[in-house]
Amino acid sequence: MKTLLKNISFLFILFQSTSFPQFYADSLTPDYVIEFWEIADEFAKQNEPEKKIYKIFTEEEINHIAELYYKCYDENPVGFQKYVNDKHKEWKKTFLEVTSGKIKKRPWLKVYALRYQIANRYGIPFTEVIGTPGFIRAKFDSAYQSSIYLPELKSNWSINNYVFVIEEVLKGNKFFASGDKCTISLSSNAEAPAPVREKDKSYLIPVTTWYNTTNYNGEVSFSFLHKDYQTLTDGGIPPKTFRIENEIIKNCEYFGIKDTNWIDFKKYFKETYLIFH
Hints:
nine-stranded antiparallel β-sheet, 2 domains, alpha+beta
């Protein structure tokens, strides 16, 4: 139940002008998704406690892993999430059937183990940014409420919807386009408060896809951009929105830079975080 509510708290509906197939690289699983998973799976096998062996990646290997991770979320975020979720279904079946003996690590924990290796090399902010499919500059327009029916809860769930107009795309041009209107929806029952926003004000907003285990209908969500991987909780913290006022982006210390001119920030962002592009 807690996991379900957390997923719901991140949920919002993708703007009308984008069709959900754009979030897949193609109908087949790309090589970089398979390769990343194989490295994560092998890493988990090599680091089982009873073996008393801890795999140490070289700097070159970490760079390659980071590039694969970047591609998974930059080119095929939904396909990647679906691939790992399918692995989870296989794991869950084994978990339910096996009553004794050894149980393999959950698939997403294998992914997170590699993510932690990337963070050790590049830092958490860098790892969070390359694992976020989109960074859009958007102007807040309006808000309204709606509800969705959740079969898992057998009840309606209240949703707060925030309408934005995209002004520019820093990351995720494959999925987002300037001039599109998007409705970002967040559960009103979520632990995370509403995002900071003001009418006709511009913000840099990190967004990520959210893949339901049954179907994908174009849903995406705010990326909270974690500061650490020890306590992955967003309770009481609103989704990050970085205000842009008089062409100065504010409160962007997370990216390793102080308030700065938007043009300079874009150059810095590209040179610092889009090195695998």
